[in-house]
Amino acid sequence: MAQHKINYTQNGGLPVALTSIDKIVNWGRSNSIWALTYGLACCGIEMMASGASRYDFDRFGTIFRASPRQADVMIVAGTLTKKHAEFIKRLYDQMTEPKWVISMGSCANTGGMFNTYATVQGVDRIIPVDLYLPGCAPRPETLQYGVMLLQKKIRANKASRAQTAKRLM
Amino acid sequence: MRAYKPKDNVQAKAYYTDRYYVSPQVPKLHVESDEIFAADLEAIKAKVDVLDAYIQVEQMVVFINPSDNYKVLELLRDECDYTQLSEMSAIDWLADRGGFEIFYQMLSMNKRKRIRIKMFINKGEAVNSVEKLFRSADWSEREMFDMFGIEANGHPFMKRILMPYDWQGYPLLKTYPLQGDEFAAWYEVDKIYGKEARDIIGPELRDTAKVDRYDSERFARLGHEVPKGTKITGNEPKNEQNYQEEGGVFMIKKFDKKDSVVVDDPQR
What is the pTM of this model? Predict the structure, then answer.
């Protein structure tokens, strides 16, 4: 308890906000999107720039984690080779629900300019993707916008609804 | 009257081609023109058969029999001072000559000279590993096996280096398609989900520039988004992109375009 007397009504109301469970849960979820560090190629540099001081992802609550167990969103930043495809599936399966995937850049979206035998032609052949960011590489602003759209998407869902596991098939 | 010739793509064609044009070859010099190379070649000739030798772009090229490669490289390293194997690989000549040309690029830092040892093997033959002489040959020979399927006898770990271990096919062969064969096209699907999943996931879309505005499954027109799977008529209403929810946020007033005034008159 505060020692001095507080006039709770002086600014026109009690310091109490009323809301619904959905809103408070979604507020928590959408403002603490922890991302899995997943820089596969040059898009990873832009992703790092987004996390660093100039673009400062921390203010969105997006903190990069090196473990899939602690991550909510997988930002696939770069070229996915066929050799690596099984590992992205494994890491995606290791993430806890609810989880989201952002496919960052042309290579992750469609294979991009690597129209070759060794490149997966889009990560959505392996894992379900929520958001595709165009660009080669996308600017940090694009990734910020993508994260804001993802926040909006999270807030649009009912949090009380039972989580169904996301699977490609 | 002259016969009519279509002139649709007349500008795309070459204006003039010389019937007698012969593309210039890099000149080959005799080995005797360089003292150091001549001495090296004599040392090689004393030990093994040399099929051909010349100097091209200040580097000596020596053709040997494939069985002599270890002996020649050992000689060059220990007695002729070529202490580095800067590069080695193979060249696909299957269509022309039914085999591969294998080259070893050697460098002498003391003599400031480079020698290229070349040999020809037929399809299916293996080469002797030179990994015991040069550690750099370890990965190079693995890469040669990975890309061409040429095995190196005596290599301690003769496995693929770049492609996955269970890969089929040798990607650097001239007959290998750039976009991959049947195995490559379905590799990740087969491995992760199994062959049954091929029908569900579908073939790879190789045209990355393809945009279909009537396909609402894969594409969304910016500012005219519709729910996934909606049939697109072309008269979709414009959706304003908002960062905020409809209800707004506490203490922040939402900017409303309808209430704003656009000043048209620049002189006002």
Answer: 0.77
